[in-house]
Amino acid sequence: MMRNIIISILTVCIITSVTYAAGPGLDNALEISTSALTAQKIRMNVIADNIANVDTTKTPDGGPYRKKTVVIQTKEFLRGRGFISALRGPGGVLGGVQVSAIAEDTSTPLTKVYDPAHPQADANGFVYYPNVNMTEELVDLTQTSGAFETNVIVFNNTKSMMQTALEIGR
What we know:
By secondary structure, the protein is of the alpha+beta class. It has one domain. The protein is 52% helix and 14% strand. The strands form 2 sheets. Strands 1-2 form a two-stranded antiparallel ribbon. Helix 1 crosses helix 4 and helix 2 runs antiparallel to helix 4. The longest helix is centred in the C-terminal third of the chain and has 35 residues. The radius of gyration is 22 Å and the shape is elongated. The two termini are 33 Å apart. About 6% of the residues have low confidence.
C-alpha cells in the first residue's frame, strides 16, 4: 500500500512537472488521470466479457467467441504534435490516453476438442472453443485493477495538492 502511495506521489510530481513545462498545471494531471480511469474501466469490462464467454461455442455470427483486447493509445496533443515535441517546445500539452479500438484476437488459435455428442460439433466431431485463457484473463484483470487503483490515488493526490495550493493562496 505504501509503495502505491509513493508511486502515485512520484507520478503526480512527474506529471505536474511535465505539464508545468508544457503549459497547464494540475488540472491537466486530473484530465490525464480521468482518461486513464476511463480506459481501465473499459478494459475491465472487456476482460469480464472474455471471462463470461469462456465456453461460448456459438455467437450470433455463427462461430465461437473470440477473445477481445483493448488497444489504448495516447490522446492527440494540441497542434498535432508528438510526445517529444510536446516536451521540448511550448504549446504541446499531454492529453492522457484513450481507447482506440476493441479488437478480436485472431492470432491465438481456437481450442479444438473432440466431442461428437456436442450440438456444435463439426462433421469430424470437433468442437471449437474460444481462445480465452482464464489464467491470462485473471492476471490481466488484476493488473488492470491495480492500474485503476493507482490512477484513483493519483487523482486524489492531485486534487489534494490543488486544495492545498488554494489554502496557501488565502
